[in-house]
Design a protein that fits this description.
- There is one protein chain.
- The protein has 261 residues and is an alpha+beta fold.
- The chain has 4 helices and 14 strands.
- The protein has a 7-stranded mixed sheet, with helices on both faces. It has a 5-stranded antiparallel sheet with strand order 13-12-11-10-14.
- It is globular, with a radius of gyration of 18 Å.
- It is an enzyme of class 6 (ligase).
- Its EC number is 6.3.4.15.
Length: 261
């Protein structure tokens, strides 16, 4: 399959400081973190890769895809002045921005599985990973959006792509532009509010596929709880009604269960 490379010159008029496109790398997140460690100010820096050989997801999971079949993008975000309790909203607002860009650009009705997986039905269309460039208040947010990935190429049978979903708009340059415009707007609002505001919280809830679903949460340490997801609180945590109590989950793996599960 012939896939068109990204055109850096088309990625203009964006509210970012710098955009770089590389042909291949291990991980765009790792590269931005390394640049920060070397003394570079990565606030507003965007790095895209045509191919990642060591792409990472949440909980250290690896992810791979053929060159030019997805959008692999990382951005450095300054969290100066934002209470660290609000930093957890950065990957969540990235999910909101990504869902909005996909819906507007392709008509695909994507939604969010808590905390920040982008799904269409049960298929995973995109993933998001945020990492703090400690000790500074700088966070690197990375995302991977499957564009022309085929079912035969997918490393996980649960994966889907815009092409597999029948989207007619598969122009990665246009998609990157739309994503960055949505994302930089959300980031600027988060920075100005010094954390999440009521609009962001409500926007996330409206795009959530998890709220109202019967879910199982696998928690750090191996314990699990099952119940109905009922809310996202101001810290971005998931509230699950187990029948005996309403438990608050700040980290964990969520599975959407069928009624019989």
């Amino acid at each position: 399959m012939s896939r068109t490379p990204l055109n850096l010159s088309s990625l203009s008029d964006l509210a970012v400081r710098r955009v770089d496109v590389v042909d291949t790398t291990g991980s765009t997140n790792a590269d931005l973190l390394a640049r920060h460690a070397a003394g570079e100010d990565i606030r507003g820096a965007v790095l895209l890769a045509e191919h990642q050989s060591a792409g990472r997801g949440r909980h250290g999971r690896s992810w791979s895809a053929p060159p030019r079949s997805q959008i692999a993008l990382s951005i450095g975000v300054g969290a100066d002045g934002v209470d660290p309790e609000g930093w957890g909203w950065l990957p969540l607002l990235t999910g909101v921005a990504l869902v909005d860009a996909v819906r507007a650009g392709t008509g695909i009705e994507a939604g969010l599985k808590w905390p920040n997986d982008v799904l269409v039905g049960t298929g995973k269309l995109a993933g998001i990973l945020a990492e703090v460039a400690a000790p500074d208040p700088v966070i690197v947010v990375g995302l991977g959006l499957n564009v022309t990935l085929t079912a035969e190429e997918a490393p996980d049978p649960r994966a889907t792509s815009l092409q597999m979903l029948g989207a007619e708009m598969l122009d990665r340059d246009a998609l990157v532009t739309a994503i960055l415009r949505e994302l930089t707007t959300r980031i600027a609002e988060w920075q100005a509010a010094r954390g999440p505001d009521q609009r962001l919280t409500e926007d996330y809830r409206q795009r959530s596929l998890t709220l109202g679903s019967h879910v199982r949460a696998l928690l750090p340490g191996g314990s699990e709880i099952t119940g109905t997801a009922v809310d996202i609180d101001v810290l971005g945590r998931l509230s699950i009604d187990t029948g005996a109590e309403v438990a608050t989950v700040s980290a964990g793996d969520i599975t959407h269960l069928r009624p019989a599960d």
